[in-house]
Amino acid sequence: MIPNFLSGKHALPTALTPSDQRRPLLRGLISKPELGPFVLLVLEILAFWAINPEFLSPMNISNMLAFTVELGLIALTMTLLMTSGEFDLSVGSVFGFAPVVMWTLYNSGTTSLEVAFLAALMAAGLIGLFSGLFVTRLKIPSFLVTLGMLLVVRGAALYVTNGFPQGTWSTGNHWVATALAGDFHVGSFRLYMSLVWFILAALTLTYVLTQTKFGNWVQATGGNPNAAKARGVNVDRTKVVLFVLSSMVAAFAGIISSIRTAAANPNSGAGYELEVIAMVVIGGTALAGGRGTILGTLIGVLILRVMRNGIVLIGVPGLAYSIFIGGIILGMMALHAGLERRHHAGA
């Protein structure tokens, strides 16, 4: 008896064609939140380079990286905080406040530079702790708590300095200043130690978010806090830790900036909080929480800093920067929403 293969009862297994095998890989790639920002970054670099070849010169890249990593440090920890469902509007004020604390203590002869540095970080940690406890214990939205903290911290910095930048100082070859913001050369590129700190922070936080129990807690806290509590996650403690970390890293970045520029300006960091949030959101982290990507944030940081540098280099007025940023945010949100719907439809 000849088996009836057409009936399907004894059908031979159908071999998958190469196109069938590639389809799941392609669908998975398209669903990645980092894909859209990466494509935009590449197009952005190519466009600026085509208009002005000096855009990719060693000097311009060196200058661009010096500013990028300081703001990027804040964006990295903001990624974790936003993944947990919260955000911090006070980071820009802390960025300006911490150097004021550090250099006021040091310039007045009150303490050594090492102690002043630690005191500034501790002050920032207390600011983050206060914000975190207000949000978790009193159940006040983080937008309102950190908006209030923004004003308090900025006001404190202005009061201490009477509204003026502190005078320049001489740290000589002090090891703290060298370790935080010393410069070195790699070929034709002049780089700063802040780039090393930025890379270390990115690698560490990527590991924390994707490979550790605490990273799972962060994502569960932002995704479904009630379910997270039911599974034993201390949601409130997780958020408080992230507020403290966000504030201390903002202070660290501000201190690095003050050493590099030799100035402790109480107004420095103004507006950074919104730019940092834009970097994180453009990179693919969900504004509502539950999904975060450090790699996406790195790309988002580069997108905005490349944009700021490029439009000035090609002759576009710097005041138009906000127009480009607003357009990028709207475009990336539309792209993320479209990819999300496509991913769920194909699931």
TrEMBL record:
Identify the species of origin.
Mesorhizobium plurifarium
In Pfam terms, one family for this protein is BPD_transp_2
Quick one: a GO cellular component term? plasma membrane
Give the residue spans that cross the bilayer.
Answer: 35-52, 64-82, 115-135, 142-160, 189-209, 240-264, 276-304, 311-335
User: What is the name of this protein?
Assistant: ABC transporter permease protein
GO MF annotations in UniProt: transmembrane transporter activity
Q: How does it sit in the membrane?
A: Multi-pass membrane protein
Query: What is its subcellular localisation?
Result: Cell membrane
Q: Which UniProt keywords apply?
A: Cell membrane, Membrane, Transmembrane, Transmembrane helix
